[in-house]
């Protein structure tokens, strides 16, 4: 005769429901997995044995950026502006929380299925790590150790906090060493699901909170260690802007002195930043080099010391993001200091038939720039300074490209490491296969800064002021017509 003890009053007071227990176990597992991986990734980057992007969070985020369709990129820029990367981090965190909870709930029902979910998520992260530029097998070590730590916690906690379904013997009697809390289910339903063990809610929640906190600390410490003071920041602090033969001066009256109008020269810290780098590369100038390859007579490798020995020049150039909306702020003037790219290409000797220069960043980003823009008399520069100071890391330290007259997506490569002389028929920059124009000339535009949209103005004389740009031609005046 079959006998089963059943509680019909739900989970006893002080214990978690199975779904709640699963969510706690899943969050703890996800936190420990990610925290251990991020901590080890930061240590690896600090020690110098990581060649690519060992951080699973950064690798997944960067892989997502690479595969995001143009409409999603436009939406992110228009919605979040220069905070688009922070929005991506928040999104990644929310997705991780949801997937971790789902993994834990699955593990409460079936430990094997929960482990399978963990391994699947680890495999996706591993593929992202290996997809990053300069990736090697050693970049997987932090993630593998993190997954092992998560597997240990998941299996241990489900064994401690979860009571498995009772097993039915051949005679039909129930074989169980403990009483099944069935939450009002029938005896058959009681045997079909796992139940919560007698461990109290306080113990489960306390253990889960401790694991999540430990994971968060691992992530934070890993970030601090990876981004701590290193050779790149020391070199930047010691950098002195090379002398130039002729300095650029701001035209008299360029700054109108009207509150709310964008300054004629935008300060470095306020200059807009739009790029595909989820994590700002930290490049040590002592190890930096620029290779000139492709359709050239002589391949050249230029190091930092050699570049600084070249005759530098200043140029006032407006940079513009193609995603800048009407009235947007993704543009600005700066005085850039650098060596003309045309001089470097002259040394290399461009072969007939070339019509494009493919510039590559240390993070793998590429831009296809018309060869003409690199070799004519415009001030296309290998830039080492902005507004009389070393480039900020987020603006390309130690070296970036600035090409007047072209949108940034086809020209303004930061942390530049290679110039490949080639053709548009043979190569494409990062954004071209994603539907963007291969040429990207900047269009003449203007913007009213004051009064701003929605401002209430008093009757009488009202100052209307803003900025306008037309590269290669300049602006002599702007007509403003009322409605």
From TrEMBL:
Positions of transmembrane segments: 86-108, 115-134, 140-157, 203-226
Question: Which Gene3D superfamilies does its entry note?
Answer: 2.60.40.650, Oxidoreductase, molybdopterin-binding domain
Q: Which domain of life is it from?
A: Bacteria
Q: Enumerate the UniProt keywords alphabetically.
A: Membrane, Transmembrane, Transmembrane helix
Query: Is Membrane tagged as a keyword?
Result: yes
One Pfam annotation, family name? Oxidored_molyb
| UniProt entry tagged with the keyword Transmembrane | yes
Domain Oxidoreductase molybdopterin-binding stretches: 279-430
Q: Where is this region: Disordered?
A: 165-193
This one is known as Oxidoreductase
